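Task 17 of the worksheet. Students: predict the tertiary structure of the chain below and write it out as structure tokens. Keep your answer in the requested format; marks are given for formatting as well as content.
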Amino acid sequence: MPARAGFNYAPGLRDCPPGRCDEKDSAERLQRLTAREEFERLRRQAQDELQMEAQNFQTLGFPKPVLKNSAWVWALGLVLSTKGSSSLDSAADMSQTHSSPSSVTSFPLAHSHIPLQRKVLPAGEALQRPTGLGRVTCDRSVQRPLPRASSVELQLPPPPRSSPARDVSELHPADLKLTVLTSDSRWETLMFRSGDFEKQALEFLREKKLKFWLLVSLVMRARLVLVFAAHHVHRRLCNTRSAQRFIHSRLPPPLPLLIQPYVLFHSVFVFLLCESLVRVWDLMQASNWLDPSSFRCGGTAIRGAPGAIMRPLRWMALACPPVTIITSLVTLRHLWRHHVAKERTFDKSLRWYPSHSHDLAMQVATMPLIYGVFALDCVIQMLLLLTGSVFREFKSVDVSKEQLRHLTQERYGTNLELADLYEAWALYNFGRLCLMRVRRQIRQEIPLLRRSLTMPESEHAKLLIFRDPERFLFRPLEVTTGIGVKIFVYTCAVKSLFALTITFFADAPFHINLSETVPWALQLLPHMDGAAFMTSTIAILSLIAIEHGFHEILQLQGFAPVLKFLGVKALVTITCLQTLVMGLVMQRGLLRSDEASLCYACLLCFEVLPLALLTAEAWKPRYAGDWYDADCGWGQEGNGHLGRLAGEGDWAESYAVLPGARLSAAVSRASFIRQEDSKVEEIGSSELVRWNSFCELKRVW
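Model answer:
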């Protein structure tokens, strides 16, 4: 019997001497029958397992978590098994003539991380290597797949009448068609060419994983909005002294740390970083590490179609993931030092509840981590566009390439807007710290100023500024500075929400390009950019004025305002200059628009690393008694000191409401507050009343 193309069952069989050919034919026929029985047993076993998986199929169309990552591997394994049966005798081939339609059903969730060899190769090897025969090479010489269980038997929705699963044409001898049920409940016919089936199957799985990450990219941005909102609510609930006492006294030691708002907030961005790294790995595997020969769009060339990436850009893109990992490690180590570097002298029972200064410092120090995560996702979006992966993954969807290009660019812009929003928030917290230190110094000097006055008590009513300098001198300055910084934060928030809205409608299932549907809406973007530039300039100038005006006060206790200010605003200045430079480069035709965007995102990934090192040096706790310990001074409770913790008002504003620090006027005429220089200053009860009335005013910060 002549061997088929690609199979070598018995080399040298036709050259056997007379008299022994009949024995070899009988032995070969017996081995084939044995192989056929083994194949039928494996096929029935596969059907039983698929039926068991179908029973656990949920109503929403997604399998249970325990069964994920197995669908496409089994579908490919069954197709591989059918190849081993293509060499059966003619009776088996005739029995397939009246078989059911050649379709293979499968379940969703193509993003399988299970190695293909675990479920595919054992069944294939068992059928491809009968005892005493040569090694079988795997190719496309399959005439028809064996009968499979129907959709009704597997409890799956039947395919539509127009689907290829109902009427499949005769398979070409060199090709194999596979009809599967995709994750979005569509029937899709896949074509496997002749060659290495294992390599094609792995490429198929990688493409499905890439498509999965594209589909969840919008969910990632929606999650970020929920994360910011949930973090705000979490801080409101947990950042109170009563809640933290309950947490530290009732829960075991690891839990008080794990449920802190800052820990959960940082954990979310670490998870997003890991998710981006997985996407980068899948993209690199699919594109052969950005090899230009693997960039194929498979359609009509359009503006932005895949092409060769410049060699410097290729190496920059390959270096972005490790640089972002180093940035994250530096930032996380710096954040951890705010809690374990030294033991504070107040509120020792609430160890994992940060003080007010540490809380504001951590919100500023987190900026390199968040900016790095968004910059890495921008690199991923541009690589998807330049390599053509975004066009290949959605070629079966009724979406034009221009729409996919618009969607990818909107994701890129949304990432930058969200990063700028958090940068504005970091600038806002830096301003709060500067003004808080100035306010504390003024309140420390007020009692000394009052004691130095020798005029009679009746003449004090004529003094306004010296009687309450905080109210008449500092508070107007605080409000003026706060207006500029707050407007900058509000402007960035509006821009981010606007960009999220555009991306939301451009992504599945809407695929609406607002630039064509509502053209006037996109005309607001240049105005928003101009407003953000103006408000950021005003905010920076306001903080510069504060730093120069109160430089001597801010320098106390090693605060180093200049270094901290550079760490906060250096990135904004650099990104602004980068935007101007990239615009000039594109005008001169040195780089295409997509290449310039990729270069911009890669430079951001590289710039956040020195920014993280600078931030760690400027904001790290240095020694006992540094400016972080200025939060101590509220009073005493039992044998311990009380201090200002995260989410609480300033020590002078909330002094009267703290337990253990409230003194009745009938018991004592004066109250005592522990000062920074360990001296006790006497403050009359009338001063305490004026402080309480000041607390009733609307707080600026």
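Marker's comment: The CA atoms of residues 11 and 661 lie 96 Å apart. The radius of gyration is 35 Å.
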